Amino acid sequence: MEMTFRWYGANEEKIKLEDIRQIPGCKGIVGTLMDIPVGEVWPKERIKALKEEIEAAGLTLKVIESVNIHEDIKMGVPTHDKWIENYKTTIRNLAEYGIEVICYNFMPVFDWLKTDLDFKLPDGSSTLSFVSSDMPTSPEALIQNMEAGADGFSLPGWEPERLSQFKEVFAFYKNVTDDDLRANFKYFMEAIIPTCEEVGVKMACHPDDPPYSVFGLPRMVKNREDLDWMCNAVDSPYNGITLCTGSIAEDPANDVVAIVAEFTKRNRIPFAHVRNIKFTNVAAKDFYEAPHLSSEGSLDMYAIMQALHDNGFDGYIRPDHGRMIWGETGRPGYGLYDRALGLSYLNGLWEALEKK
Ligand code: CS2
Ligand code: MN
């Protein structure tokens, strides 16, 4: 396994590559180009500059999170072919600079969502939480909440250009079923996986967060059966999963450890997000994003790391969202300190597993 840390870019946040470099055992950056509008080709010069900047700081760039999917591809409208061609060009451009994994998601309209981006824990730290009874009744209100809670940062997957046409898009999805969405996914994968195989870039789909339908929108990456369907839709190791333990676990019916074990064994996890959540009400699926440590949340992090380890995981891994601690401010979920603690903890678990 290779330990990494997500970084949004020098113009997008105050965390420095030099800070990340000082986290023991952190080898690589999970990078992005936040300012490229969804669907546009990622220019080679920009990828090259990003790679050089990261390597100058003594880190590697092998994983991109995310190259977002144009809504037309998810909707399956005729204009999708143009965006798919662009996506293929982006894959080729990334491959030229040594990128091995592209993380993305296939959620209609919204990326991840929470009802509180500044939920205070008794120790004085703050985290992200979801309380079903606090879910706004309209998508407009939800967008307002997310933007108001973001502290001036653009949230990943909540890019303004993506949300600007959301009313029309939302209306369109009224007639799209989960199976239609699956068909659109398959069409996309059949088009791009030959390119991925040719240039050696693995696609890694992030699960839906939350892993159930919101506002009646279709969803297709919610549980073991969905992941199984996805992998079989185009049966290639280049059609893989970003196994995000925190997202999968939000549905208490999902057996996270069994899912990690199965898909690691099937060689379909090129990238893992490993984090904990704490249920506050299991029946309502209410939770907050807990510190990574098992004792702080509802997940057995040792068992998760063991499922990766014992089934031969050799992909990239990163801690996922962290709390805001020690007075830090920044993009919700993406402070430096708590994610660094999470990373160290995961490294500790891994060392124990290696020596066992
Ligand atoms: C998620 C997503 O893991 C995460 O941070 O909350 O924003 C994730 O980056 C995307 O869904 C992947 O495309
Ligand atoms: Mn994740």
Task: Walk me through what this model shows.
This protein is α/β, with parallel strands linked by helices and 356 residues long. 39% of the residues lie in helices and 16% in strands. The strands form 2 sheets. An 8-stranded parallel barrel has the order 1-2-3-4-7-8-9-12, surrounded by 5 helices. A 4-stranded antiparallel sheet has the order 5-6-11-10. The radius of gyration is 19 Å and the shape is globular. The relative contact order is 0.14. The mean pLDDT is 95. The structure holds D-mannonic acid and manganese (II) ion. The site of manganese (II) ion has 5 residues, from loops.
Which key features would you list for this structure?
binds D-mannonic acid; globular; 4-stranded antiparallel sheet; binds manganese (II) ion; 13 helices; 12 strands; 356 residues
Brief digest:
39% of the residues lie in helices and 16% in strands. By secondary structure, it is α/β, with parallel strands linked by helices.
Q: How would you summarize the topology of this molecule?
A:
Blueprint: E1 2-6, H1 17-21, E2 28-31, H2 44-56, E3 60-65, H3 71-75, H4 80-96, E4 101-105, E5 116-120, E6 126-130, H5 139-149, H6 160-163, H7 166-173, H8 178-199, E7 202-206, H9 224-233, E8 239-244, H10 245-249, H11 256-265, E9 271-274, E10 277-281, E11 286-289, H12 301-310, E12 316-319, H13 337-355
Parallel strand pairs: 1-2, 1-12, 2-3, 3-4, 4-7, 7-8, 8-9, 9-12
Antiparallel strand pairs: 5-6, 6-11, 10-11
The structure holds D-mannonic acid and manganese (II) ion.
The site of D-mannonic acid has 14 residues, from β4.
